Amino acid sequence: MNKKLKIGVLGAARGTCMINILSKHPEAELAAVCDKYAPALNEVKKNAEKNGIKLSCYNNFEDFLKADMDAVILANYAHQHAPFAIRCLKAGKHVLSEVLPCATIAEGAALIDAVEESRLIYAYAENYCYMQHHFEMWRRIKSGEIGEISYAEGEYIHDCTSIWPRITYGDPMHWRNNMHTNFYCTHSLGPMLMAIDKRPVSVSGFDLPDYCRNGKVPETLGAGLMLVKLENGAVCRALHGGLRRAEQPNDNYIYYGDLGTMETGRFSDAPVVNVYKEGEKYCHGEWERYNPKQFIKPKAEYKNPGHMGSDYYPTNFFIEKILGQKDGIEWSIDVYKAVEMGICGILAHRSVLNGNIPMKVPNLRNKSERNLYRNDCETTFPDIENGKLVSRRELPPARERDEQFQKYIAGLWNEHAEFEKYPY
Ligand SMILES: NC(=O)c1ccc[n+]([C@@H]2O[C@H](COP(=O)([O-])OP(=O)(O)OC[C@H]3O[C@@H](n4cnc5c(N)ncnc54)[C@H](O)[C@@H]3O)[C@@H](O)[C@H]2O)c1
Predict the structure, then answer these.
(1) Which helix (H) or strand (E) holds 97?
(2) What structural domains does the chain harbor?
């Protein structure tokens, strides 16, 4: 195929990362960008002009959807992806969705319906699966090197306190101010679900206290923990959110398999993978420790594809899957996996609100079971159509809607006080 795929991007904040990947991809081109926030859209326009690119820019989704495009990348608000994805699919566009996939279980069910009915490609941009160290472990686990996995741990710790005014625009209604961190579990849990490749069947969630630096600063993201049981009895522990840690996210994973162990290297400058494989004798084996290289090379040279290079892969595999190419078919994340990651977060929060008891994870691959969840609309986001609002935090201090706090954050945003640039 000689013609490049035409791809549009909704959302020009995180979306700039996908715009960057598309700008050099040999098999696709950036066709249009949409953002209702003028400063973000203007920045994209300015950069395109600087690079001699003619770009259609839109400030509303309705006009954007009419643009000449084969596919859409959704980098809009995290809690609004499912309805936008459904509208794109109905308009005949393939969809790559940023995290989260859905804000309620009912939305997850409707999203799967829409993908099945459209027969188009839906892919999920869970980039932590493609971090150099994790992508390597996924490849080796998939090939069976350490056998069946019985236990795994994944962590995504990202203290966003210093960038909170900037990433919430000082707006109490911004999605980041209305989400519990257990909803944002796909960076910690997602890589494990992909590598182990078994369906989650139950989840218990926990809400961790945030002491707000001895009460001196307001709470921002909070932190959460979940224990997820898989269909083969294996258990995954996923930890995520804003615990105290230096600005770079901590993303570490461990897998215990029937024939060995794999573990990322903590506190190392470059990504490290440690592998133990049992030999002929029980409890004796070989350890390997190395800096993995990306085993699938980018198709163009990118200066900074973002998140240690992982940001290239969701967009690339999406393009390749649309084009029927092998790597895209093998490594792109489909709608079933996406929704499973997402609803584990929603159910972990439900578990928190019910004394941490395990919650059944429905099998939404099965249409008759999917039908039972069409009205399951519990969410922490106040602006979801037909949403049934539940409390965001179980534990004090839940100060995120506190008037004083909002004034403080809005003040920082308005004054453009020392915000750190968010590393997309
Ligand atoms: N995978 C990662 O590592 C990673 C990192 C950051 C953000 N994200 C995800 O990317 C998405 C965007 O995050 P963000 O930090 O850029 O959020 P954001 O809230 O800063 O930006 C979203 C942008 O979308 C625009 N937008 C939203 N709805 C729109 C609409 N209907 N029409 C036009 N424009 C609209 C907003 O104006 C805004 O500029 C989220 O889903 C988030 O979870 C993922």
Answers:
(1) strand 94-97
(2) 5-127 (3.40.50.720), 132-300+334-389 (3.30.360.10)
